């Protein structure tokens, strides 16, 4: 009998860390051979683990639950709403600034703990009746529970995600200088979030494949599609499930951090508790940011090459961290490190390494070769810019080619004026966007296709949940699932309001009803492959370019229609993946599904409202916002992300891909990037199969390399070098040498640095910048890297203001 067990084990290819468990438990399971076959034996062995197939989950999340813990309490609503409003305001506030800092929910998770405990210790416990109803509640139902803490974090997460539609409002008012009714703008902000949220929920509820393959199941949504764990241990330990460890780690960290904060932490001699460490770093970050935020803004980008060769255009193109290739540039400002790429402390090192490899290949191989060979008249324009140009090297005059009344392309004026040109870097960014999309499809098909197909067949044919993991069984035993009609109602209402937004208000958004539905369909197709890549790398490949391309061909000459289509299509997928993550936290923390649903819904409504209100306030109160040429020296309101969004609306909406990326335009070669991306993962797949013992081959991720420069040109070279250096120090050197310190402090360090910069940035605005006080007038007050010639063309005879004519 023992030999039979030993013969069965190898065919399931147990990893090394599981072999000792199999040896320990196999004797206890031999009796099952009398009744079941080998596959049933292995299933029982796995069931003796009584746990999740992901190791991080098994080692961290207990298989117990306390259904009596308080969940939706007065504290949850008060602190959760406050957190959601605060993060929504701060993140939108910083979106218009030169360094776009984004504050995550982990910061709130730490900050609300002492407040929650204070409320539990001091608020009265008396029951309060709601007038005209039978409802009662208490301001203090008992100790501040972990479940309350997690729901407050989910509330905050709704405010941390951003509202992409605000970009549309910004370019209409600040760039095109057109009117937009505030109700129409508000509806746009709400519906792009709601239809995406309703669409995301409905996709997860009705399609088991994304929910299982991206987050290893979210059984809180529909009982019929709960996680069905397979009988064979081989399936439980399959490659696809192992791929989920990076994403699981992110949510397990939030869970573990919550536990650590609630448990009484004993401070060892000479050490500090987590809260003490957070407080020290927060104060230090808060105090230091007064230097780059007010007195010495130039610290955000230091480019020494430019200071040495002050009169050389080529040297400044090479050395500028903001307008050039950024060799030797760096920033002494946390906002520079984390503003566009996110905190490097939150990414696995292999993701950082792949990103930096892609960045180096583009910035220091592809772009220099194309520029100095004068490909497509590249020397007529800056080497690095997000702007659009005419054939004379001047900024493209969009007012010459737009009809004032119909707000679309005047074709005759366009043909009499000039074709649209881009900087060589900006042109390659779009080509690489094409390549990253097709590479994602090929990568998922080659590396994950078989496992996804198996999973699809299993989840669509299985109808019972008797083999679900322990967490699923606990959830189904203790809590009711969310009714399916809730999701359907959200989807129907969201679509109806979206149709009002796009078809009403004098058709200001230009998008027809069929465009709205097509955008959602595109998001549905890409949710699974993009989700698998995100699960393996913690980075998401966006649909912004493919949606621009599709509507640009189908509905050309309409800039607002183009960006509206992009927003509805792109955000639907993004919110679907975000929702899965939040629900997975709730699954591990044993949060009642209906409570999670309510928090998600209310949080989305509140955050959308605050994002819109903050944007509308700044757009109507900050004079010349988003116009660096008219802003006072030292003003941070340069809107780098909105500037890229605006120029994209010209490229894809006004002119359109037909007159950009075919023989009618300047860049027909860009379409070859689709084929390049499609073929690029094949060699790595072949090498991995040919040399399975070479572990380093498996770490090369082609879609991630091709999409490495996707945040550019909003992000600049100085942001990448600063981000990559900090990531290397913490997630490679410190992680390998001081793993205990890294595990305890890294995420808290990131949250405290973010919070310190954010709070002082807001204080600086209200105390000084709102009164047009931007610090002392000196060399370091300029928000630049002092490389004025980096923006200059090098073609003979081109005249640009502030540049020498060669």
TrEMBL record:
<feature type="transmembrane region" description="Helical">
    <location>
        <begin position="74"/>
        <end position="94"/>
    </location>
</feature>
<feature type="transmembrane region" description="Helical">
    <location>
        <begin position="747"/>
        <end position="768"/>
    </location>
</feature>
<keyword id="KW-0653">Protein transport</keyword>
<keyword id="KW-0571">Peptide transport</keyword>
<feature type="transmembrane region" description="Helical">
    <location>
        <begin position="150"/>
        <end position="176"/>
    </location>
</feature>
<feature type="transmembrane region" description="Helical">
    <location>
        <begin position="420"/>
        <end position="446"/>
    </location>
</feature>
<feature type="transmembrane region" description="Helical">
    <location>
        <begin position="485"/>
        <end position="502"/>
    </location>
</feature>
<protein>
    <recommendedName>
        <fullName>Oligopeptide transporter</fullName>
    </recommendedName>
</protein>
<feature type="transmembrane region" description="Helical">
    <location>
        <begin position="275"/>
        <end position="291"/>
    </location>
</feature>
<dbReference type="GO" id="GO:0035673">
    <property type="term" value="F:oligopeptide transmembrane transporter activity"/>
</dbReference>
<feature type="transmembrane region" description="Helical">
    <location>
        <begin position="514"/>
        <end position="535"/>
    </location>
</feature>
<dbReference type="GO" id="GO:0016020">
    <property type="term" value="C:membrane"/>
</dbReference>
<feature type="transmembrane region" description="Helical">
    <location>
        <begin position="233"/>
        <end position="254"/>
    </location>
</feature>
<keyword id="KW-0813">Transport</keyword>
<keyword id="KW-0472">Membrane</keyword>
<dbReference type="GO" id="GO:0015031">
    <property type="term" value="P:protein transport"/>
</dbReference>
<feature type="transmembrane region" description="Helical">
    <location>
        <begin position="199"/>
        <end position="221"/>
    </location>
</feature>
<comment type="similarity">
    <text>Belongs to the oligopeptide OPT transporter (TC 2.A.67.1) family.</text>
</comment>
<keyword id="KW-0812">Transmembrane</keyword>
<feature type="transmembrane region" description="Helical">
    <location>
        <begin position="349"/>
        <end position="372"/>
    </location>
</feature>
<feature type="transmembrane region" description="Helical">
    <location>
        <begin position="718"/>
        <end position="735"/>
    </location>
</feature>
<dbReference type="InterPro" id="IPR004813">
    <property type="entry name" value="OPT"/>
</dbReference>
<feature type="transmembrane region" description="Helical">
    <location>
        <begin position="597"/>
        <end position="619"/>
    </location>
</feature>
<feature type="transmembrane region" description="Helical">
    <location>
        <begin position="670"/>
        <end position="687"/>
    </location>
</feature>
<keyword id="KW-1133">Transmembrane helix</keyword>
<dbReference type="InterPro" id="IPR004648">
    <property type="entry name" value="Oligpept_transpt"/>
</dbReference>
<feature type="transmembrane region" description="Helical">
    <location>
        <begin position="101"/>
        <end position="120"/>
    </location>
</feature>
<dbReference type="Pfam" id="PF03169">
    <property type="entry name" value="OPT"/>
</dbReference>
